[in-house]
Amino acid sequence: TFQTNILTELKNWRLNFIQHHKLQMRQEKEKHAAHVKQLQNEMENLKELLHTYEISISRKDEVITNLSQALEKQKERVELMRKFTLWRIQHVKAKQEEYANRIADTHFRTALMKKVWTAWRSVGEVRWKDKVARACQLRAEDVCVQLTNDYEAKIAELTSTLEQTKAEILRLHSERDQYEDSMKKAFMRGVCALNLEAMTMFQGK
């Protein structure tokens, strides 16, 4: 009948509505689950990124600490070399002064011997005086020449040693400057490498 058909149509419409509603609910649940899973994945990725940043910062701090320690050791080494070089220069100067004093004493004794010999020579006979005087004069001149040559050779040796010491000082200063410059460049390369690694990780994520 007409009423039965209407009731059947209403029942079918109600069933269709319920199924459509269930379908929409299932789709919403699936969307919600997918969204939650996506959020969880993003959270895990952020956790990994945070862990990576922590490791990167720890490495950077370790590199900075190592570089600082290396610089301090280099400063101590340069300071020790500077003190040692100053000691060597003072030692050379002391040796020069000591040698100069010995040469002065030798010249003084030689001059005194000449005066004594001149006074003693006047007492003897004329021929004997002339002969001995000539011999002593030649001997004294030889001694003076020998002493002068020895003194000049020693002065040249000490001067060469002093020049070598100065050159060593200049070389040590140059090595220190080069080492500090290398450490600065290495430090900057390490910082750049760490920043580049972090940037690469950001871009990768």
From TrEMBL:
Example of a GO biological process term: eye photoreceptor cell development
UniProt feature coiled coil, ranges: 22-77, 148-182
InterPro entries xrefs: POC5 (IPR033351)
Keyword Cytoplasm: yes
Location within or outside the cell: Cytoplasm, Cytoskeleton, Microtubule organizing center, Centrosome, Centriole
Keywords tagged on the record: Cell cycle, Coiled coil, Cytoplasm, Cytoskeleton, Repeat
GO cellular component, one term: photoreceptor connecting cilium
Protein name (database record): Centrosomal protein POC5
Organism: Melanocharis versteri (Fan-tailed berrypecker)
Lineage, top ranks: Eukaryota, Metazoa, Chordata, Craniata, Vertebrata
